[in-house]
Amino acid sequence: MTRTASTNPRFSVLLSAASAHVAKDDAGTINEPPSASFGSLSLPWQALAASLDSETSAALVDYVHGRRKLTKDVANRIADCVMRWALKHGATHYAHWFHPLTQIPAEKHDAFLARGIQASHVPMEQLPGSLLLQNEPDASSFPSGGLRSTHEARGYTAWDPTSPLFIRADGGCRTLCIPAAYVSWKGHALDFKTPLLRALDALSREVSAFVNTVTSSNACTSVTATLGCEQEYFVIDKGFAALRPDIAATGRTLLGAPSHRGQQLEDHYFGQIPSRVLAFISDVERELFRLGVPVKTRHNEVAPAQFETAPVFEEINVACDHNTLTMDVLRRVAERHGLACLLHEKPFAGINGSGKHNNWSLATNHGENLLDPGAAPHDNLRFLAILAAVMHAMNTHNDVIRSSIASSGNEHRLGANEAPPAIMSIYLGSALDVVVQGIAEGTVRSVEQLGELEITAKLAVKRELTDRNRTTPFAFTGNKFEFRAVGSSASCAWPMTLLNAAMADSCKALRARIEKKAGSRDKAVLEVVREVFKETRRVCFEGNNYAHEWREEAARRGLSNHTTTPAALAVMADRAKMGFLAELNILTGDEIHARHEVFLEKYVKEIEIEATCLLELSAGYVAPAAQAQIERTGAALAGVRQAGLHSKNLTEELEALLARYGALAEATADLQRVRASVGHDAHGMADKLRAAMATVRREADALEALVADDLWPLPKYREMLLCGV
Ligand code: ADP
Ligand code: MG
Predict the structure, then answer these.
(1) Which atom of ligand 1 lies at the shortest distance from residue 308's CA?
(2) How many helices (H) and strands (E) does the chain have?
(3) Mind listing the domains of the chain with CATH numbers?
């Protein structure tokens, strides 16, 4: 059988993928430096303020800092200035850009056109201040977790001036996007931004007060968190994605036998970026530069066709929006390059999945990094106190932090041997661990200063204080923590909301403990630090988090290991454990309850979509391919017999095919039964339905090896991962 498109559409995609990109000879190319276009389509409030008259500018600055509201006149002047900027850059429409509790941000575009409201009926452009400040989308179709009935449709979006306005250029259109928070008519948070902004208020208040208590001063007036997120993703030829109903419906492959060449050779990580992908990534970067997103790093990741993009860290609210924007730009630009960017946590079984390491730290109003240990951490009381608060937060709110990264996609990573497990622990690194243990034992030990590491007589490198640990979910990495367990498709805003809330709560608790102690302030601080270092030993783990022994050890220490999403989310129903969010004015009990409902419902729907899709793949793709092969082998065997011959091979092949075909039919019927029996029960889906899906997959993947290449309808792993990128 020849490999032509008429025999199998897979082959035409293979051929077009092979010739999709011809690398140019770039010897004469000189690109403009990133700074030349950086931020040209972005308008941060500072730049906006600078372009206003002094009175309006001062009003905006006060508004951003929450010192006063905007009057109608001032709001109109600001909106007019924003509109003029947008028109100058070719925007015709504006949209409040907000992030409901769904995978992607939402936007409803309105033209600046204001014909009809003028007496003269002369067409003109207008953006009234009231429409910059707030909008009113019909909220009935967004998830609310029961906070709203379907007929109560009203919702509000409110401009968040701390996140830069930006212009999205796509499809020949330019649209002014206004970052916004989104709440219901009654004021309940229905998005990812609102709780983050509230958590940042709490963080600033509580960490500043804590720092001032620890340092016996009033110097710290505000604190913000910083975030740099390393975004991992896969890139495959768009044609392959189009031929895979599972990728279209679920973002991942639900079946597929492993590629002969996966990541065994360990040669993809930091390898040369293929030229087609490099052309795509540099286009992504150019777009992100214009949008004011400071993308900095690009490299091949561990799995074939897997890559990473990381920015310079920013203030956390902006960083979260910028990460959402980065995911959006990655998807759109990939389309233009005939590629599909897969942001799912586990697009391909058997090779690494994708995460999004959230590098997190805290900065004071003086720009000091509170997690910078300095040269003598054992002597740096402020650093030790902040470290104690982080450890206290991880210990006290362990289950809450685990819940923040629970999703159907991330379920495939956490606990598998490529991503940190579902047990939340802290890695301090040997140098800091010595200091922490020393203080806990009452014998202060200093950090050993490491000199240079000589490679040859001429080459030397400066040694970092500690090694890295790739297996931990939460690592101290010099002057920040790296929350490594976040999923690649997640909005960073939710894990960052809960982490910052936990930190605010712990600072509040530790401040109260310090203030209760008698004696000098320094002594009181050190005593509390010592107590906390002792109390939180159970969440500190320096070893291999992938090892089975750690699971047993963690269980002995009383740490949870929730490997499924419903189990991880269960804490959201625990009022005692979630109550701190209401105390800090971040989320009320009702809002948490609603969010729990939304996350569970999303999980159930995603698994339902996966199961339905797998049933279709099994019945509509794999079974017919197996039948065709059975016919072909049967005919060959009949021919051989007719000639009076025997073929042991053909007989065995047919038997194997029939056995597997039967097993697939049985597994598929079982999946159907299990699906009916678990209904919408999330726990049943996590355990029983997932198991039934795995059995179908096992049989389908075994058949893939038995069916002739030209009869197999779905692009194969080896093709998607190795061809065209
Ligand atoms: P890795 O070596 O872990 O892959 P990368 O260089 O890819 O590290 O990413 C590290 C990330 O940490 C970058 O986004 C960087 O800007 C960020 N980062 C550095 N310092 C801080 C900080 N103080 N707060 C938050 N993020 C930070
Ligand atoms: Mg990295």
Answers:
(1) 7
(2) 25, 19
(3) 32-189 (3.10.20.70), 192-214+365-547 (no CATH), 228-360 (3.30.590.10), 603-722 (1.20.120.1560)
